[in-house]
Amino acid sequence: MEFLLPVLVGALYALCMGLIREPHRRRFNAIMVVGAGAAYLSGGGFGGWELLGTAVITYVGYRGMESWTFIGIAWLMHTAWDLLHHLKGNPILPFAHDSALGCALCDPVIALWCLRGGPSLVGFLRNGPAARRRTAEQLPPA
Fold it and tell me: Which InterPro entries does the UniProt record give (predicted)?
């Protein structure tokens, strides 16, 4: 459950984001990933490198204001940062030892959703299998 719960949190995040209409959904997610990039600043696990990491994720997140791809890349960068912090033993939440690992499991789920263009999963689930078939039929041949 320790590994499944963060994945479910990432999926729930993507599902809930479907309640926000485009282009606001993309911009909101750009802000979210920039905020996540700053999560480690108070811990100082990597000293001055924390500032550089935050600055890079902030820049990539800013580019995400107009591009889902950049938002997905920023979440993957945050995943790498999470893994480094977990290996160093410097969690996001000081009272939750494996919080950085949990974040490293959650973030790629969000990143994959972003790299798919941040689609609304609410409508996708609401319309059921027929909508999924129509969507697949509308895709150009590979």
Answer: DUF6010
